[in-house]
Amino acid sequence: AAINSLLELTVTELGRFLDVIASERRTLISGDIDQLPRIAEEKSALATRLADLESQRDAALGAGGFGRGKE
Fold first, then answer.
1. Among 10, 14, 53, 56, which one has the highest count of C-beta atoms within 10 angstroms of its own C-beta?
2. DSSP readout, the chain?
3. pLDDT by residue (tens digit) across 19-63?
4. Sign of CA dihedral 54, 40, 16, 28
5. CA dihedral of residues 9, 18, 23, 51 (deg, nearest 10)
6. What are the phi and psi torsion angles at 67 (to 5°)?
7. Are 2 and 14 contacting, i.e. CB atoms less than 8 angstroms apart?
8. Taking the model in full, what pTM does it have?
9. Are 57 and 6 in contact (CB under 8 A)?
10. C-alpha distances in Å from residue 28, one per residue of 10, 36, 43, 53
11. Among the listed residues 2, 1, 37, 5, the one whose alpha carbon sits nearest the alpha carbon of residue 20
12. What count of other Cβ atoms lies within 10 Å of the Cβ of residue 40?
């Protein structure tokens, strides 16, 4: 995928991740711990998605003759 698309997807997914963290915070404050397993599952899925997008971005950078994003 094009680097621009990957960056846009990453920003979108980071926004979703931040929303989930905010929801987790509200849940912890309210003491509604029954929601925590669902939130943890959603956070895990988003973290996996972000890691996948990072790998795709690194591959796209490498294909374009650039170093990995973290170098």
1. 53
2. --HHHHHHHHHHHHHHHHHHHHHHHHHHHHT-GGGHHHHHHHHHHHHHHHHHHHHHHHHHHHHTT---TT-
3. 999 999 999 999 999 999 999 999 999 999 999 999 999 998 888
4. negative
5. 60
6. -75, 170
7. no
8. 0.84
9. yes
10. 27, 8, 15, 29
11. 37
12. 12
Which residue type is seen at 45? A
46/17 Cα distance (integer angstroms): 6
The pair of three-digit structure tokens given for residue 8, joined into one six-digit string: 């846009």
Query: Which residue matches tokens 């990995």?
Result: 68
For 1-21, what is each residue's pLDDT tens digit?
688 999 999 999 999 999 999
